[in-house]
C-alpha cells in the first residue's frame, strides 16, 4: 500500500523508539524508508560585529550537524538493514522542522510520513508535539502518528 515512507527523528529516546516502530511498519508493508533529521539553521552571533574565534563557522556547523544527524539516524538504518528494508537518509537544515519534513516528503514522493507523537519536546505538550502538529497541518500526504510512552 505504501511504497516510500518518510521517518523523521530528532534523536530523542521517544523519537527513536517511534522511528524503529516505523521501520517495522515499513517491513510489514514492503516499503522503502527515508530517514530524516532536521537540524536548526546556522545562527550568527547576535550583536557582534565579528564572529568570535571560538564560535564555529557555518561550514563547521554544517559538518557537525550532518554528523549528529547521521548518528541519530544510525539506529534507524541498522533496524532497516536487519529487517531487509531499503533505507536512505536525508539531513535537512531549517528552523521549522515540521515544514521541512512536510516539504521533503512531497519532494521525495513519499506515500506516508510515520512519526512519533512527541520528540525532543517530550510529553509537555497537551496533545501532540509541536513538530508533529506542524506536519499534520502542512502535509498533503497521510501522516501516521505513533504514540509511545516513556519507559520508566
Structure in words:
The chain contains four helices and five strands. The protein is an alpha/beta fold and 152 residues long. The protein has a single domain, classed as HUPs (Rossmann fold, 3-Layer(aba) Sandwich). The protein has a five-stranded parallel beta sheet, with helices on both faces. Helix 1 crosses helix 2 and helix 3 crosses helix 4. The longest helix is centred in the middle third of the chain and has 26 residues. The protein starts with a strand and ends in a 6-residue tail after the last strand.
User: H/E order of the elements?
Assistant: EHEHEHEHE
- Multimeric status of the protein: single chain
Radius of gyration over C-alpha positions, nearest whole angstrom: 16 Å
- Main sheet: which strands, in order across? 3-2-1-4-5
Number of strands: 5
Q: Beta fraction of the residues?
A: 15-25%
CATH topology category name: Rossmann fold
What is the second-level CATH architecture?
3-Layer(aba) Sandwich
Stretches where pLDDT falls below 50 for ≥5 residues?
121-127
Give the biggest sheet.
5 strands, parallel
Report the CATH superfamily. Answer: HUPs
Helix fraction, binned, reads 40-55%
Query: Quick one: CATH class?
Result: Alpha Beta
Write down the domain tally.
1
Amino acid at each position: 500500500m505504501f511504497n516510500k515512507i518518510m521517518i523523521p527523528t530528532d534523536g530523542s529516546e521517544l523519537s527513536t523508539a517511534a522511528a524503529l516502530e516505523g521501520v517495522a511498519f515499513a517491513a510489514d508493508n514492503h516499503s522503502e524508508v527515508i530517514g530524516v533529521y532536521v537540524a536548526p539553521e546556522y545562527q550568527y552571533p547576535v550583536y557582534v560585529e565579528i564572529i568570535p574565534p571560538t564560535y564555529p563557522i557555518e561550514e563547521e556547523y554544517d559538518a557537525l550537524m550532518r554528523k549528529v544527524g547521521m548518528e541519530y539516524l544510525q539506529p534507524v538504518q541498522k533496524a532497516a538493514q536487519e529487517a531487509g528494508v531499503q533505507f536512505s537518509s536525508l539531513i535537512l537544515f531549517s528552523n521549522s522542522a515540521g515544514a521541512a519534513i512536510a516539504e521533503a516528503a512531497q519532494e521525495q514522493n513519499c506515500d506516508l510520513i510515520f512519526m512519533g507523537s512527541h520528540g525532543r519536546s517530550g510529553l509537555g505538550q497537551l496533545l501532540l508535539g509541536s513538530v508533529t502538529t506542524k506536519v499534520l497541518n502542512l502535509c498533503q500526504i497521510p501522516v501516521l502518528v505513533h504514540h509511545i510512552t516513556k519507559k520508566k
